[in-house]
Amino acid sequence: MITRRRLIRDLGYFAAAGHLTGKASVASLEPQSTPPSQSDVVRLDSNENPLGPPPSAIKAMVDGMSATARYHFDEFGKFREAIAQSEGLRPEQVLFGVGSTEVIDAAVSAFASSKPLITATATYDILIELERRLGRQVVQVPLTESWGYPVRKLVEEAVKAGGGLIYLCNPNNPTSSLTPKGDIEWLVTNLPPHSVLLVDEAYIHFAQPSEVESTLKYVREDKDVIVTRTFSKIYGMAGARAGFGCARPDLLRAMEPFMDNVIPVLALRGAMAALGDRDSLVPTRRAEFGRISGELCEWLHQKNIRYIEPHANFVMINVGRDVRPFGQEMLRHGVAVGRPFPPLNQMLRVTLGTDQEMKKFREVFWQVYTG
User: Is residue 292 a contact partner of residue 285, using CB atoms and an 8 Å limit?
Assistant: First the structure.
């Protein structure tokens, strides 16, 4: 396991506090493409769940195929109610979207157009790059030594700016690290005026409940907090595109003009069915990914390869060299891995796959690493 300080010391990476370049195109932020000739590539590049949707969700989507001629607005209210019930909220505290990305984009548009988007680096950077390309202000500060969000620095930046939208991903993408409960509690308690906290909990179901606490409790307390969730990760429905956000009703009303307010009926019905299996599905899959993660980390430890302690369905591995050619070489050997995440340009994000996929990953990784 490595800390941020050790990484900077070892790599001489003084630019860790720097901003993402504005020169990159949005396309460059997408996962590395697979050569057409390689149809059997092991895909460990997009934090997808190889287990796929639960059988109940698959059945609901297959059975719903004949219903796709219409929007089915009449089902939206029931979907909102089901989400609210699953999270202990009121329906008016829930806003669903085409994946959690749509909800995040709406929050950014509502609360970070005239005021800055304030976050850390490295984190989920597609929304950051889009903000910059729209000419909006983005403020980033380095993650802490233990790869958590520096909550006091985030508040300092919000105070200086007269408010803004503070974005925090927990567990964080791409580092798979957690921000301590106490730090988030301090952040909510000390949120400056004219500021909103946006917490992306796309990966929270992979973390051990004893190690993480959902920020939804602050939504229930009517704080200036927005929490987003997705069905793409633990539920294995990335291609279906279903997600939601939770917040005080007035915050959601400010976001609604930036939403389509329509979700594909197949995604809706699949997500409804998956929610019905939540109590058994989430702990079972959490345990499975915990096992696979533990086996990978033990293998890395045996090989004296450093990594960030993971709390999601992916691991950040220090390869000690530029990850772009490293990843391209792995792809030539049939394994797709994550793209670069500046400023962590020598760290490789690897999504957890099945046992067979991870076996091939270890073989190819070691071949490239020692080559």
Answer: no
Query: What is the dotted CATH code of the domain comprising 4-51+280-370?
Result: 3.90.1150.10
Amino acid at 209: P
Other C-beta atoms within 10 Å of 12: how many?
Answer: 7
Q: CB-based contacts of 298: which residues, under 8 Å, 6+ apart?
A: none
> Tokens representing 274?
């998956």
pLDDT tens-digit readout, 136-191: 999 999 999 999 999 999 999 999 999 999 999 999 999 999 999 999 999 999 99
pLDDT of residue 19: 34
Kindly tell me the burial class for residue 197, based on how many C-beta atoms sit within 10 Å of its own C-beta (0-12, 13-18, 19 or more). Answer: buried
- Write out the CATH class of domain 55-278: alpha beta
Structure tokens at 93: 């505290």
Nearest CA-CA partner of 116 in 134, 86, 132, 138: 138
DSSP bridge pairs for 112: none
**Structure confidence at residue 126 (pLDDT):** 86
Q: Which of 150, 142, 224, 227 is nearest to 188 (CA)?
A: 224
Rounded average pLDDT over 97-104: 96
Instruction: Provide the residue ranges of all domains of the chain, joining segments of one domain with +.
Output: 4-51+280-370, 55-278
Cβ pair 297, 362 in contact under 8 A: no
For residues 203 and 7, the model is more confident at: 203
Cross-strand partners of 197: 166, 225
Q: Summarize pLDDT for 229-245 with one digit per residue, the tens.
A: 999 999 999 999 999 99
